[in-house]
Design a protein that fits this description.
Largest sheet: 5 strands, mixed
Length: 579
């Protein structure tokens, strides 16, 4: 019996593929477990859209009962998650995180299947390196707090589709159900934002130019991708005329005023250089590989071209959105992480048959192992202590818990999504306003031309309000009365997308919303660094006075006792939910 040297046994073990499969499974399980354990850190936009889906399940209609800055498709994608959460009695945030991790694992399996069928077959170490690059890219996105964001979902679907299209252009075959699943995932995610179509379009252009022929047919994935597009088109065609008019009016309002949240192309480009280390690495990798691909011909060039198409489309999506939000960078960062993995694969491939570089063939592939283990250890170090020893509630969370109960409505008058979300979803409170947060205030300021980024405006003259402003203020008052919130929290200056001198509460005082819909029904009870806190007066509970009652509450109590037969709406007492 021939005895193998340790070096030979090591090389055979690496080439067999078993370590790669084991590490992939372990890393996916680690990231999934950590994400599920830390579900309270769900991204704010994801929490808002998930709560919108809960309202749709309750019968609310988009552009009639609720309005959001995004087209409704992303809300519809969250409806099954909200339904499963309700049916199983699970936390909505936990259900959402588990659903995203399921999509993540499915994407890794689909990518593994496609890489094994490429015309220029990759060995186990090379394919495993690319798959680990995909896994680490998603781990990086999750660590940055962007798990489940729309750009993250798009990246999860685009990468397997990109390699599937490469397989088609090389004349390879793929299992029909795998191809259909990959196409369906892309069709579901590309509809979320119109500019996501840049990804598959740029990919096809790159593949056609690289192979010098027309697009290769891919019937299963194309049919599956077109199915949700057809369903979405049918939804729009069957909208009742009043709802269609409401949508077009809201879309025109958004397109005209959403520039209030824009940072400008110059600031975006500047931030790409100065934002963080991730951006610098991503830019260097992208530019370097574009230069190398233009000059060199090598065996794995098609794989690098596909990943460059993914990365450059991610950069284009970031620049087009011009918001400079961290999650807009997810496809760009993810593509760059996979380019890093491809760099190792290409270096290993180029080292073959070269004297003195043979050791790279096996040892270089240990780098992804080290990255995977290091990332998992970092995640464990960050998440496990927070899960085992959770810190105290934030001051805002304590205030909301003190003055409201689960299921109550909490009304945030704020131009930012945070900190209202994910707080409302995690504490099981409902939003008071039909727009979830008061972004129309920022849009109206942009449309009215009363302020800019440089000046410090005074509250407007009530006689100078524009028509869209009057309409929104009427809707805001209607929401305050209709939803009967337990609390109203008004943002202190500064507020997002507002000039430095703009005070939301002063504005509401000048236009009359405070005197008509807030102060007659609510008492200001305590302060928070970011909000003025008002609590609804309850005349029917007859609770004892509490130490922090304000003078207006005492006056309202005396008035309600004198005029009891009239059942005045003013406050009999104000007390926390614990009394």
């Amino acid at each position: 019996m021939t005895r193998l040297s340790p070096a030979t046994a090591y090389r055979r073990l690496v080439r067999s593929g078993r370590p790669w499969a084991l590490v992939q499974i372990v890393i996916v399980l680690v990231f999934s477990t950590l994400a599920a354990a830390d579900f309270r850190s769900i991204n704010h936009d994801c929490a808002l859209l998930l709560q919108a889906a809960q309202l749709v399940l309750e019968g609310h209609r988009p552009y009639v009962d609720l309005f959001e800055t995004n087209p409704p498709w992303i809300i519809f994608l969250n409806v099954p998650i909200a339904w499963v959460s309700r049916a199983l009695g699970l936390s909505a945030a936990l259900t959402f995180v588990l659903a995203v991790q399921l999509l993540f694992a499915a994407g890794a399996l689909a990518l593994s299947h496609v890489l094994g069928r490429l015309a220029r077959r990759l060995d186990q170490a090379e394919a495993g390196t690319l798959i680990l690059g995909f896994i680490l890219a998603n781990g990086l996105i999750a660590i940055r707090g962007e798990l489940g964001q729309r750009e993250h979902l798009f990246f999860l679907a685009l990468v397997p589709y990109a390699f599937l299209r490469l397989l088609r252009h090389q004349g390879g075959a793929c299992h029909r159900w795998v191809a259909g699943s990959i196409g369906l995932a892309l069709g579901l995610t590309v509809l979320v934002k119109p500019h996501f179509f840049i990804g598959p379009i740029l990919l096809e252009i790159v593949l056609v130019v690289a192979h010098g022929r027309r697009p290769a047919p891919g019937r299963p994935e194309w049919i599956a991708a077109l199915a949700p597009m057809g369903a979405y088109a049918l939804y729009w065609l069957t909208l009742p005329p009043p709802v269609w008019r409401a949508f077009t009016d809201h879309a025109a309002f958004m397109l005209g005023g959403y520039g209030a949240y824009a940072k400008g192309l110059g600031r975006i480009v500047e931030s790409l250089v100065t934002y963080d280390g991730y951006t610098a690495v991503a830019l260097v990798l992208t530019v370097t590989w574009i230069a190398l691909v233009a000059r060199m011909r090598f065996v794995l060039r098609p794989i690098v071209l596909v990943l460059l198409a993914v990365t450059v489309s991610g950069l284009a999506i970031l620049l087009i959105q011009s918001r400079n939000y961290g999650y807009h960078r997810a496809p760009f960062y993810g593509g760059a992480a996979m380019l890093l993995a491809a760099s190792l694969v290409v270096a290993r491939s180029q080292s073959r048959n070269r004297r003195g570089l043979g050791w790279l063939r096996c040892d270089m592939v240990l780098v992804p192992f080290g990255l995977a283990v290091g990332t998992a250890a970092l995640s464990l170090g960050l998440v496990v202590p927070a899960v085992l020893r959770p810190g105290p509630d934030s001051p805002l969370e304590r205030i909301v818990k003190r003055w409201s109960r689960p299921g109550d409505t909490v009304f945030f008058i704020d131009t930012s999504v945070t900190p209202a979300y994910p707080l409302l979803l995690l504490l099981d409170r409902k939003p008071g306003t039909r727009t979830f947060y008061c972004y129309p205030l920022a849009l109206i300021g942009k449309l009215s031309g009363r302020w800019s980024d440089e000046d410090s405006p005074r509250p407007p003259d009530p006689g100078a309000l524009i028509a869209r402003e009057l309409r929104y203020l009427a809707e805001l008052e209607e929401d305050l009365r209709r939803s009967r919130p337990a609390m109203v929290l008004i943002r202190k200056p500064p507020c997002q997308a507002c000039p430095a001198g703009f005070d939301v509460r002063d504005y509401l005082r000048v236009v009359g919303v405070m005197s008509r819909a807030v102060t007659p029904l609510f008492d200001r009870v305590e302060d928070h660094p970011l909000f003025w806190v008002y609590v609804r007066c309850r005349i029917c509970e007859r609770r004892p006075l509490v130490p922090h009652l304000h003078l207006e509450t005492v006056e309202a109590l005396l008035k309600s006792l004198i005029d009891a037969p009239r059942k005045d709406e003013r406050c009999a007492t104000t007390s926390p939910r614990t009394f």
